[in-house]
C-alpha cells in the first residue's frame, strides 16, 4: 500500500492534536471537582472557589489559568446546560427615521410603515422596500431632501438621486447592525456569560445570541433591549476623590456593619456552634482561624476599603501616595455590587457631592477580574454629560505615526465646537492634564488623557490597543449617532433540570448505540469486524478532539449527529467488506481480495460521502441553533470516518497480512447471506409507483381533514411552554382551562413523552409589542394551571414572532430546493447523464412527500407531537442524504458494470437486466447499512429524550423510505426517463 507511512504520521499527528484539545476538559473537570468537594453542596462557596481560581495556573507545564482553560474546553449548548437564546432585531425603521431627522412628512412615515409590514411577511431588504414604497407614494419625490445634511455632505448632496440615497442608507444600516453586534457582545461579556455564542444572521437585520447557563431571563431581556447611550464626561483625578471615599468608609464603619463582615461573623459563629462550616475548624488550623478573625476585624474597621482598594502605591521614599490618573480604586468583580450598595445607602448619599458620580470600567484589567472605579464630574445643572453620542459623525480604526493602532473620531459641526472647549479645559494645565471618560451604558469604556486642545473636531484615542480593540471602539463611538433600537423577536429558555435530563439521555443513547454497532460488526464480519470496530473507536476519538479544537458547542442534536455519524461510518466498512466477500467468492486469495475490495468500493464510498457532506453543508448554511450543531458534527464525522474507516483500517489490514495473520470476513451464519438473490425491482416498478401514490393521496386526505400540517412554533409564531406536573393530566381539560384564561385564544396542549409532561402552545399576545407581553402571557398561563389543582413546574419556554417564523419557512424552502439543485448537478457531472440526475431528484421529492404524508397520517396517533419545525427540516434534509447515498451506490455499480462490458450505455431489456443486477448485487450493503443506522436511530429514539423524539422519528421513517426509494423508485425511474432514447 502506497502512502502507508504518511497515513501513520497523519494519524499520530491528529491523535496528538485531539489529545491536547480534549485535555482542557480534563483539567477543568479536576478543578470543578475540587470546588464541589470544598463547597459540600453550597453553591455560593463553590462559585467563590472557582472565582478565586480564575487567574491561578492550573494546567501543568503550560501555565494556563482556570479561566483560560475553561475557554478552550468543549462547550455545552442550552439543551445540555440550560440557559437562554434570543434573536435580536435591529429596528431599521427607527434608524432610517433618525437619519432623516425624524420628519413629520405623511408620505415618508407611510412608506416606513408599509416597508415594515412587508418585512413582517417575509421581506428581506428593509432599505429597498422603504425606497420602493416611497417612490410609489411620491413618484417624483427626492429622498435627498430628507437625508442630505452638513454632517454627511461628503457622501450625499442635495441633488443626489434616490439610488444614491439608497446606497447610503444600506451602508449605514449594515454599519448599525455591526455596531449593535459589538454593543450587545460587550453587554453579554459584562453580564458574565461563559462561552456565549453570537451570530449575525447574514442578509437580515437580526442577531442570534446563545447564553448557556443563564436563567435570569428578565434581567437578560432588560440588558439586551436597553438603550445604547454613548456619553463623554470629565473625570475627577484620583487625589481629588480620596477624601470622599475615606469619609464614606468612616461613616459606614461608624453607622452600620459591612455585609462582608456580617457574613464572616455568622460563619464564625456557625463554626463555633458546630454548624455547616464546623468541619473547616480543626486543631491544626488555628492560623487560618486567626487570619479569618483579622479579616473580620479589618472589614468592620474599613467596610468600604475592604472591598475597594484605593489607587495608592508606595513612592520612592516608601510612603503611600496617590497613583496619578482617573482611576480612584479597584475591586473584584464579585464585590462591585456591594460597593454600589454602599454608595446607595441613605447615610452615604449626602457625603457624595452632587456633581460627582461613580462608574465602573466596562472590562476587567487584562488577565484579572479587577474592575476600575472612576469618579465622573457632572458640570451641567441638568446632570447631562458634557457631550453625547450624537456628536460623533464618524469614527474609524487607524494607525499612528509609529504604526500603533488608534481610533480616529470625526465630530459634527456642533460637536466639534463643544469638543474644542472640553479638550481645552482638560489640557489647560501642562503639569496636570485631565482625562475624558468615554461612557457606554453607564460603564467607562476608555478614559484617555487629553494632551492638547482639539479645535477641528478630529481627534484620536491611543493606548495599548490591538487592531481588534480599535475596530470595536470605533464602532462603539459611532453607535451614539445612529439610534437603532434592538428588540427581541424570538427567545428560548430551558431550565437546568431539563438540561441535566438531556445530558443523561444523550449519554445513554450514545453508549448503547455504540455498543450495538460494535456487537453487530463483530458478529457479522468476524475478525474483520473487529478491525472496523477499532477504526470506529479511533474515529470517535477524532470527532471529539476536532470538535474540542474548534471550540464547538455540543448540543443534544449534536450528540445525535455524532451517533448517527458513527452508524454511517460503518457504511464504508460494509461497502469494503461486501466487495471483499465478492472477491473471495471468486476464489481470490485474502490479500488480493482485500486490495480489490478497497479499490472497487472506493468510488461508491467517495460519492456517497460527498453527497452527504453537501447535505450537511446546506444544513449548516440554512439552519440555526441545534440544526447547525447537528450539521457541524455530521460534516466533521464524515471527514474523520473516511480517514478512519478507509485509510486506518487499510493500514491495519496490511499489517495483519504482513504478519501472515488469519483474517475472516464472515462466519458460518453470515457466509451465505444474500446469496443468489434476484428480485425483479424493475419489473415491479409500477406496483411501487402505485404504493407511493396511495400513501401520498392518503396524506393529502389527512392534510385536508386536519386543516393543514401541524406547524411548530418556529413556523407560525407563538409561545410554547414545557410544563411538568406531579401527576397525569388530561390534555383536553388543560386546554379548556387555558383557553379561558387566554381570552379565548387557542391553547394547543399535547403530551411530551409522558402523561404528566405537557407541551402548551398559544398565539396569545404574540403580536403585542409591549415589553410586558411575556409577563402577561405567563401570568395567564400560571393562573390557568393553578386552577387545575395540581403541582407543576414550567421547565422551558420559547417565543417566536411571526416575523422570524416567515423567515424560517422561506429558509426551509430554500434549503430543500437548493439541495435538489446541488444533487442534480453533482450526479450529472459524475455520471454524465441527465436521466440519472433527474431520477435522483424525483426520488428526493418522493421521499419528502412520503415523510410529510406519514406526519399528517400519524399526527395525533402517536404519544408525542409531530410538528413541522426547524428540527423537521434537518430531518428531511438528512433523509434526502440517505436516499442520495443509497442511490449513488447503485449508480456506481451500474457504471462499473458498463465499464466491464466496454459500453457507455445500454437500452431496452439489456438496461433492465443491468439495473436489476446492480440493485441485487448491492442489496446486502443496502440492507446491512440500513439496519445498522435503523438500530442506532431506534436507540436514540428510545433513550435520547423527549426533546428530539419527533426529530428522530422523522429520521426513522426517513431511513425506511430512503431504503425503499433507492431500491424501488429512484433507479427504476431512470428506465422510464430513458425509454424514448434510441440506441446510438
From TrEMBL:
Family under the similarity heading: Belongs to the SecD/SecF family. SecD subfamily. Belongs to the SecD/SecF family. SecF subfamily.
Role according to the record: Part of the Sec protein translocase complex. Interacts with the SecYEG preprotein conducting channel. SecDF uses the proton motive force (PMF) to complete protein translocation after the ATP-dependent function of SecA.
Domain Protein translocase subunit SecDF P1: 178-235
Claim: Membrane is one of the keywords in the record: yes
Membrane topology: Multi-pass membrane protein
Keyword Zinc-finger included in the entry's annotation: no
Subunit relationships: Forms a complex with SecD. Part of the essential Sec protein translocation apparatus which comprises SecA, SecYEG and auxiliary proteins SecDF. Other proteins may also be involved. Forms a complex with SecF. Part of the essential Sec protein translocation apparatus which comprises SecA, SecYEG and auxiliary proteins SecDF. Other proteins may also be involved.
Membrane-spanning ranges: 506-525, 532-553, 559-580, 601-623, 629-653, 687-704, 808-829, 836-857, 872-891, 927-945, 951-975
Domain called Protein export membrane protein SecD/SecF C-terminal: residue spans: 486-652, 785-979
Major localisation: membrane
Keywords attached to this entry: Cell membrane, Membrane, Protein transport, Translocation, Transmembrane, Transmembrane helix, Transport
Gene transcribed to yield this protein: secDF
InterPro entries xref list: SecD, SecD/SecF_arch_bac, SecD/SecF_bac, SecD/SecF_CS, SecD_1st, SecD_SecF_C, SecD_SecF_C_bact, SecDF_P1_head
Start and end residues of each SecDF P1 head subdomain domain: 381-484
Pfam families, sorted: Sec_GG, SecD_1st, SecD_SecF_C, SecDF_P1_head
Annotated organism of origin: Pedobacter albus
HAMAP family assigned: SecD_B (MF_01463_B), SecF_B (MF_01464_B)
Cell location: Cell membrane
Name of the protein in question: Multifunctional fusion protein
Amino acid at each position: 500500500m502506497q502512502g502507508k507511512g504518511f497515513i501513520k504520521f497523519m494519524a499520530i499527528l491528529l491523535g496528538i492534536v485531539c489529545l491536547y484539545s480534549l485535555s482542557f476538559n480534563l483539567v477543568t473537570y479536576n478543578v470543578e471537582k475540587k470546588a464541589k468537594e470544598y463547597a459540600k453542596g453550597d453553591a455560593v462557596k463553590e462559585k467563590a472557589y472557582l472565582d478565586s481560581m480564575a487567574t491561578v495556573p492550573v494546567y501543568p507545564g503550560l501555565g494556563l489559568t482556570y479561566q483560560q482553560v475553561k475557554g478552550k474546553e468543549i462547550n455545552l449548548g442550552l439543551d445540555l446546560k440550560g440557559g437562554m437564546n434570543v434573536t435580536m432585531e435591529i429596528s431599521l425603521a427607527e434608524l432610517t427615521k433618525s437619519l432623516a431627522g425624524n420628519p413629520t412628512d405623511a408620505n415618508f412615515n407611510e412608506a416606513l410603515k408599509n416597508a415594515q409590514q412587508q418585512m413582517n411577511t417575509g421581506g428581506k431588504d428593509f432599505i429597498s422596500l422603504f425606497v420602493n414604497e416611497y417612490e410609489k407614494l411620491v413618484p417624483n419625490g427626492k429622498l435627498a431632501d430628507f437625508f442630505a445634511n452638513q454632517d454627511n455632505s461628503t457622501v450625499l448632496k442635495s441633488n443626489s438621486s434616490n439610488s444614491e440615497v439608497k446606497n447610503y442608507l444600506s451602508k449605514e444600516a449594515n454599519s448599525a447592525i455591526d455596531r449593535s453586534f459589538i454593543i450587545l457582545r460587550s453587554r453579554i461579556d459584562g453580564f458574565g456569560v461563559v462561552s456565549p455564542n453570537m451570530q449575525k444572521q447574514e442578509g437580515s437585520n437580526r442577531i442570534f445570541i446563545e447564553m448557556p447557563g443563564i436563567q435570569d431571563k428578565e434581567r437578560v431581556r432588560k440588558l439586551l433591549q436597553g438603550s445604547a447611550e454613548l456619553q463623554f464626561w470629565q473625570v475627577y483625578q484620583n487625589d481629588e476623590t480620596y477624601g470622599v471615599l475615606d469619609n464614606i468608609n468612616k461613616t459606614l464603619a461608624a453607622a452600620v456593619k459591612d455585609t462582608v463582615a456580617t457574613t464572616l461573623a455568622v460563619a464564625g459563629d456557625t463554626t463555633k456552634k458546630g454548624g455547616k462550616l464546623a468541619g473547616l475548624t480543626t486543631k491544626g488550623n488555628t492560623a487560618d482561624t486567626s487570619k479569618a478573625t483579622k479579616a473580620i476585624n479589618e472589614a468592620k474597621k474599613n467596610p468600604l476599603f475592604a472591598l475597594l482598594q484605593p489607587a495608592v502605591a508606595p513612592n520612592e521614599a516608601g510612603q503611600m501616595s496617590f497613583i496619578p490618573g482617573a482611576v480612584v480604586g479597584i475591586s473584584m468583580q464579585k464585590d462591585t455590587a456591594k460597593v454600589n450598595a454602599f454608595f446607595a445607602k441613605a447615610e452615604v448619599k449626602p457625603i457624595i457631592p452632587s456633581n460627582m458620580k461613580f462608574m465602573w470600567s466596562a472590562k476587567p484589567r487584562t488577565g484579572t477580574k479587577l474592575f476600575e472605579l472612576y469618579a465622573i464630574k457632572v458640570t451641567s445643572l441638568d446632570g447631562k454629560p458634557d457631550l453625547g453620542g450624537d456628536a460623533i459623525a464618524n469614527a474609524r480604526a487607524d494607525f499612528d505615526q509609529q504604526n500603533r493602532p488608534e481610533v480616529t473620531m470625526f465630530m459634527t459641526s456642533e460637536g466639534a465646537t463643544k469638543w474644542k472647549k472640553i479638550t481645552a479645559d482638560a489640557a489647560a494645565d501642562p503639569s496636570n492634564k485631565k482625562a475624558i471618560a468615554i461612557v457606554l451604558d453607564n460603564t467607562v469604556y476608555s478614559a484617555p488623557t487629553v494632551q492638547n486642545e482639539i479645535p477641528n473636531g478630529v481627534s484620536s484615542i491611543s493606548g495599548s490597543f490591538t487592531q481588534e480593540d480599535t475596530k470595536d471602539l470605533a464602532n462603539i463611538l459611532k453607535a451614539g449617532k445612529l439610534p437603532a433600537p434592538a428588540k427581541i423577536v424570538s427567545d428560548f429558555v430551558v431550565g437546568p433540570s431539563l438540561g441535566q435530563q438531556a445530558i443523561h439521555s444523550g449519554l445513554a443513547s450514545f453508549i448503547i448505540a455504540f455498543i450495538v454497532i460494535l456487537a453487530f460488526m463483530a458478529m457479522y464480519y468476524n475478525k474483520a469486524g473487529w478491525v472496523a470496530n477499532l477504526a470506529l473507536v479511533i474515529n470517535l476519538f477524532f470527532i471529539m478532539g476536532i470538535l474540542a479544537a474548534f471550540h464547538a458547542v455540543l448540543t443534544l442534536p449534536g450528540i445525535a449527529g455524532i451517533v448517527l455519524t458513527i452508524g454511517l461510518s460503518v457504511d464504508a466498512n460494509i461497502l469494503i467488506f461486501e466487495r471483499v466477500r465478492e472477491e473471495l467468492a471468486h476464489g481470490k486469495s485474502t490479500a488480493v481480495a482485500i486490495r480489490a475490495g478497497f479499490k472497487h468500493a472506493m468510488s461508491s464510498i467517495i460519492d456517497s460521502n460527498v453527497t452527504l457532506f453537501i447535505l450537511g453543508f446546506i444544513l449548516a448554511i440554512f439552519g440555526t441553533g441545534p440544526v447547525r450543531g447537528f450539521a457541524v458534527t455530521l460534516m466533521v464525522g464524515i471527514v474523520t470516518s473516511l480517514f478512519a474507516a478507509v485509510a486506518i483500517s487499510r493500514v491495519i489490514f496490511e499489517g495483519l497480512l504482513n504478519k501472515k495473520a488469519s483474517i475472516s470476513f464472515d462466519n458460518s451464519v453470515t457466509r451465505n447471506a444474500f446469496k443468489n438473490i434476484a428480485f425483479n425491482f424493475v419489473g415491479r416498478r409500477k406496483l411501487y409507483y402505485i404504493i407511493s401514490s396511495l400513501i401520498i393521496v392518503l396524506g393529502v386526505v389527512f392534510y385536508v381533514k386536519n386543516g393543514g400540517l401541524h406547524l411548530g412554533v418556529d413556523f407560525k409564531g407563538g409561545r410554547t411552554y414545557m410544563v411538568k406536573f406531579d401527576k397525569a393530566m388530561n390534555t383536553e381539560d388543560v386546554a379548556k382551562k387555558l383557553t379561558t384564561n387566554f381570552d379565548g385564544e387557542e391553547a394547543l396542549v399535547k403530551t411530551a413523552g409522558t402523561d404528566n409532561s405537557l407541551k402548551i402552545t398559544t398565539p396569545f399576545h404574540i403580536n403585542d409589542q409591549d415589553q410586558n407581553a411575556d409577563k402577561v402571557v405567563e401570568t395567564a398561563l400560571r393562573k390557568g394551571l393553578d386552577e387545575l389543582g395540581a403541582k407543576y413546574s414550567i421547565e422551558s419556554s420559547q417565543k417566536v414572532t411571526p416575523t422570524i417564523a416567515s423567515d424560517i419557512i422561506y429558509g426551509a424552502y430554500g434549503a430543500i430546493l437548493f439541495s435538489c439543485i446541488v444533487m442534480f448537478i453533482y450526479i450529472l457531472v459524475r455520471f454524465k447523464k441527465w436521466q440519472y440526475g433527474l431520477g435522483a431528484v424525483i426520488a428526493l421529492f418522493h421521499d419528502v412527500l412520503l415523510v410529510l404524508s406519514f406526519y399528517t397520517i400519524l399526527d395525533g396517533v402517536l404519544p408525542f407531537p409531530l410538528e413541522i419545525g426547524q428540527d423537521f427540516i434537518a430531518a428531511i434534509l438528512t433523509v434526502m442524504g440517505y436516499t442520495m447515498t443509497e442511490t449513488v451506490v447503485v449508480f456506481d455499480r451500474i457504471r462499473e458494470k458498463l465499464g466491464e462490458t466496454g459500453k457507455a450505455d445500454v437500452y431496452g431489456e439489456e438496461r433492465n437486466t443491468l439495473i436489476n443486477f446492480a440493485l441485487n448485487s448491492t442489496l446486502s450493503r443496502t440492507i446491512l447499512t440500513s439496519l445498522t443506522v435503523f438500530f442506532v436511530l431506534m436507540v436514540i429514539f428510545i433513550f435520547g429524550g423527549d426533546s428530539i423524539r419527533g426529530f428522530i422519528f422523522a429520521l426513522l421513517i426517513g431511513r425506511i423510505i430512503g431504503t425503499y426509494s433507492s431500491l424501488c423508485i429512484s433507479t427504476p425511474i431512470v428506465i422510464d426517463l430513458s425509454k424514448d432514447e434510441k440506441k446510438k
